[in-house]
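Pasting as-is:
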Amino acid sequence: MDDAAYAERFAIEHAHYECDLEFWIATATRCGSPVLDIGCAVGRVSLALARAGFDVWAIDRSPAMLIVLSSRAERLGLADRISVHAADMRRLELGRRFPLAIIPMNTFQLMHERADQVDALVAVHRHLESDGELLLEVANPDFSAIERSVGALVPAGTHRDEEREVLMLHSSRYDSVDLERRRATFTLRIDERADDGSSAVFVREFDVRLFSPAELRALLEETGFEVLDVYGDFDRTPLTEAADRQLLRCRPAP
């Protein structure tokens, strides 16, 4: 699958995911715009923010993803609210500061090495206003559970795509885990069953960095951030060991 086809599939497979949008919109309402959306992909969050009336600078290193985003923004009449930039988060040079930067949807877990993580956070810090905020979302890993589940395909819900008349069955599988390096590879699988009786399977593989809460907090503090809040979900409940995700609200340290 080439980059353009991958980007189109990404848009299809994530269209149903909306549980975080209210959180990002509420955060933008509090902090103001423009919002710096880092790792925006095809613009699921950027478009929601633009629809809510915010200006967005949408950043991704995949030109194919940004082409899909731009097309969707044009079609929805939101192109004047979204400024699209092909860039690597480790090397951002946008020439301005923002009241809010967000890194949603586990994007930061693609920063595998410590040097990459530090470079990315330092670059974000450089683009924040002195009282601006960074909101960072990553998974909250249960390392022992991940290790036990390697090789097992786990159902992850269903979604009906009414436009294409297709039922999409989502599942995932950890393929390997390296606890010493805090790295894991996993596969996302989408089984599609169309109303006309046809079917198809789409598979995507990922290699991600796993962050414990203590490690992530220390990394943020090392790169000049003050951690204001740590949530375990989009309803702002406190982080617990049982939480599936970590949401950290930070600002440049005084």
